[in-house]
Amino acid sequence: MVLRSPRPLMATQAALTDGQASRLLEKYEESGAGWFWETGIDGSLNYLSSKVSRAMAGSGISPKSLTDLVDNEASLAEEASERSLSFYLTSRLPFEGLVLKSKGQHDVWWSITGEPSHDEVGRFRGFVGFALDLTDQKNSEIKLLQLARFDSLTNLANRDTMRQALENSIMSSVHRKHRCSTMILDLDRFKFVNDTFGHLVGDQLLKSVSERLVKIIAGRGQVGRLGGDEFQIVFADICEQDRLSSIAIDIIHSLSQPYLIQSHLVTIGTSIGIAISDYDQRSAIDMVRDADLALYSAKAAGRGAYRFFATEMHEQALLRQQIEEDMRRAIERGEFHLVYQPVVHTVTGHLVGFEALVRWTHPTQGIISPGIFIPIAEESGIITELGEWVLRNACLEASKWPENISVAVNISPVQFSSQSLPSLAASAIAYAGISANRLELEITEGALLNDTAKTRSAITSLKMLGVKISLDDFGTGFSSLGYLKSIPFDKIKIDQSFVKGATVPGNNNVHIIKAIVGLAGDLGMVTTAEGVETEDQLALIRELGCTLIQGYIYGRPMDAAAALERTKSETAIADGYMVDRAERRRIIRAGRIITDSANEAVRMRNLSRTGAMVETDLKLQVDDHVWLEIGMPAPLEAVVRWTENGRAGVKFMQAINLDEVLQTKSKSEFSTFVPQYLSQQSVAQYADKERLTPKALLRR
């Protein structure tokens, strides 16, 4: 083998003998750090370091030329280098640092350098060169590439890779005159699992979810994790709604099956938003945004659902943003005010307190429903500032009432998770100059999902102050009797959904109320029945032994002045219908009313499953039989029960499904109901309630 002459040695250095040089070269070759090679005129190998020769022989390879050592099926970049090696050898040009993958050896990489060799008269004799082992460096590069393109926990594609995949799918679909699609998935109740069982269980759950997703998709698309509990799927060739619906249903079903992780049986769910490309200029960012809005809608539908993107979802998002901006200014401008609903003792009929409720009167849009602005306030963080304002003002107002009248304030999960809540309550009490036991903080079961040491510490601190704690809307959330055992509640509030219909024969609500009252009594807790509106409901609640009553029968929420006036009377007077009526929906629906002798236009309002109030020019009489055409497959047969000034109450001959009736509104009619903003009046109309329901404004 021909080697270059070494640099001239310093005067103090001794020249290497041939034996010394051979031993040093042999030692270097055996170290594995590098090796030497030489070819003849025809390109065949004249010399190859013995360690490389043995490794090749172990892989069943007998290299005849230098190119036989490298893998021809490496990545594109390495293929380019391999072709360059052939080019240099054929062209008899020197080369340096060509990065090539070894053939036959698992993930072994080399950096090969060589130069042509000539004899004394300049005739070409072949190539001589050396190679350095780059395996460790190359593996590090691969790991870095893996980290850059894939999620380290699940090994799924990450956000950037999924964005690139979607962009490529969009470009390909445009060229093929086809469409692609994407799904955005968000896990339901993952935070609860993570906080309850710890991050190790949460991480393992994400891995299990990833495995199930990959199995379901089965090569039909690319699955990726965007971060947290959010996943994405890109389909380059699937755009049909029925196929996507089928896949979404399979995903929801599979991910909702229990997971056994570290001896914990965990159950979660998922919601899915789907966007399909169109023959337009939408980018990957646009499609992800659309899928996010569809996911938003799926969560609003009650979770465990999927929704396809629709253009009106943009209107909802813009509306939500506008409400948030207006709400921030509303606090500064003093647009919020409090109203107070009486709480009455069941047996004595004495007024014992009020629940403070926040209301918002917009300067141009009027009254904004709390069901609209409260969820947005919680999501945006405005609830912290708004909640402090409510708490302080409620305490100040209570300072004007008799000492035996308390005030209850709702505390959102966002507020309850703040460590500053006990100090805020203490400050509000002290500033108002009221006794701590006159303040009652109402929390929902949702605030207890993150049942942590901080949560219990906050409750303990509040109890030490003397503040009373109530569990609101009991039985409607993720109910756990463990809360009642471990948290010292003073009161349980029975949700109005149990009171509603409890007096109807055959309704099971009465048994649920009785069980809650009995449980609370055994635990030494007070019970409040919410939503009591009628005399028969009042009698039932008294009979079942509920401690307190709150509902329209003792008064609707009233302003501060009216509440102060009410405190001057010790006994509250019940005022409501004698019996529970069927649920009514305030709507405006145009249609036709048909009698034996006429067929006229009619406007229907206050719809229930058993009847409606209608406005008509017909001279109707009590007990007249009529038929109503309001877009249903067949006219609704009804009988007139009362008439007054162009209005009439009709009773349907057969009870109807309210949701089925309301969903018959044609799609074209919706455009006439899209307001510039929400008001109390527009919320009462079906079209706005359907498209701009408070749930639809909840974030995923």
From TrEMBL:
GO terms for molecular function: cyclic-di-GMP binding. InterPro entries: Biofilm_reg_signaling, EAL_dom, EAL_sf, GGDEF_dom, Nucleotide_cyclase, PAS-assoc_C, PilZ_domain, Rev_trsase/Diguanyl_cyclase. Residues 178-311 form the GGDEF domain. Residues 93-146 form the PAC domain. Pfam families: EAL (PF00563), GGDEF (PF00990), PilZ (PF07238). Residues 320-571 form the EAL domain. It comes from the Bacteria. Coiled coil: none annotated. PANTHER family: BIOFILM ARCHITECTURE MAINTENANCE PROTEIN MBAA, DIGUANYLATE CYCLASE DGCP. This is EAL domain-containing protein. The lineage of its organism: Bacteria, Pseudomonadati, Pseudomonadota, Alphaproteobacteria, Sphingomonadales.
